[in-house]
Amino acid sequence: MHLKWFHVRDFQSVRDSGRILVSEITCLVGKNEAGKSTLLRALYRLNPVIAAEGNFDVTNDYPRMDVEDYRHEVESGKRKIAVPIEACYKLDADELAAIAEMFGAASVSKPEISFAKNYDNKATYTFAADNQKGLEYLIGKADLSEQTREALM
Hints:
Low-confidence stretches: none
Number of strands: 5
Structural class: alpha+beta
Shape: elongated
């Protein structure tokens, strides 16, 4: 997997970074205290080397000026839990081959996967797949009678 882009929102000094495109060489440029390290800290928390360093904490990480308003709005159901980091990765040929072997090459709609983590430290992922083509591939591989195969499709 190769990082394609990431997006940081409501994390420390960063309100909304917008999508930051990443290529083989990416350079973050800005004045001191502009938020360059903050962007990288948020990205690190998505998949930390040391698991204990991967958690978001509303008290320490949400922009200080609005943290109490945020807490009240979440508790009262007026707003959803904020997602400080989202990142999209392009799948490598080996990863795509493993998916193709299991579900068929046609099942992959986009060769990428996105991960996100919210302030409850719940990670989610998004992978675009054609479920119908994947199911057809699995059924085609299975040792089923022709009548059973037709009934499933």
